[in-house]
Every structure is written in structure tokens, then in C-alpha cells.
Amino acid sequence: MMHEPLVVGGVIRKLWSSEALLYRDHLLRLAADDRRQRFGLEVTDDSIAAHALAAFDTGAVVHGFFIDGVLRGAAELHVLSRTPPVEGELAFSVEAEYRNSGIGSALFGRTLLVARNRGVATVTMNCLPSNRPMQSLAKKFEAKIRYNLADVIGELKTPGPTPISLWREMVADGSGLAASLIDAQMRAMRVD
């Protein structure tokens, strides 16, 4: 099942490696409890900065939700294996004031599309037992949920790529490229 609701007032697009600092800034804006929910443990500012830079070095695909050129939500897809069956892992973060507006669902849908097109057969996401919104999101996308003492694991099976799914990603990437150029232009014109 593919969900991709439109998010009014913002743009969802892939981040380029040159935008790692935007990703870092987004993660640093998360409150302490939100950081713990995102990473599964307490993390320092330095750890977050290192993670944001490393995400692009490890080949992760990061989608972001932007409002007025500012990254307010993100989803990471890490492909864990290249040999069949290919496995991937998802992680999400949305700043508190932008939650409950469909951003998580839109990021999830876009990230699943990319996973599908890369031949990822199984996608997992881990979260803390207290992270009920993440568990609800996983259930919305029909993930199989397993509860452990330390974490909750959602697992999804994805269909393989099709010409239509590849086309959808290509169109989204083209729109995203245009949006990133507009965002860069707006940032360059901003006077602080």
C-alpha cells in the first residue's frame, strides 16, 4: 500500500550530500526527548553532527520536508545489504510543531518508493516502546510489529520496482531538484 498525501505549505524532496548541514541543523533542533526517540538513546550535539555527515557518506537516501527552505522533517533509508534478499532500515524525525499534519506519512511513502526502486525486499524500523506515533505510522503502512523489552520493530515487505514506480521517483526527483534550486536561491537572497 502506498500513501503519499500532499503536505500543504511544504515540499518533500531528496537531500543532496551538500545539504548535510541542513540535516544536522534539523536534528539539532529536536528536543532532548525527541532526539532520544529518534536515535533510541541519549545523543550529544557532536554525535548528531557526526551522524548527519556520515549518513551521506554511507550512501543513505535522505528525504526532507522543507518549509520556506528550512528542513523540518526527514527520513533516512539505509540499504543494509546488496545481496538478495536486500534489506533496508528507515528512521524518521519531524520537529514537534510540524507533527500530526501528514508529514510523517508523506516521508514514509516517499521513502518506501525509493526502497522499492532499489530492490529492497524488507524494510525495518526500530523505535522505543514509548514512541507510539512511530508505531502508529508503521501500522498505517501495514508493517508487521514485534515488541521486545528494549524496542519495537516494524517490518514491511515491499514489491519490486515497476516502470510506474521508477517513473514516480523520477518525477519526484525532478520536482525536488527544482525545489532545491529555488530554496538555494531564497537562502542566498535572505538578508539576516
TrEMBL record:
InterPro entries: Acyl_CoA_acyltransferase, GNAT_dom. It holds the Pfam family Acetyltransf_1. It comes from the Bacteria. The keyword Transmembrane helix does not apply. One of its GO terms (molecular function) is acyltransferase activity, transferring groups other than amino-acyl groups. Keywords: Transferase. Residues 57-141 form the N-acetyltransferase domain. This is Acetyltransferase (GNAT) family protein. It comes from Blastochloris viridis (Rhodopseudomonas viridis).
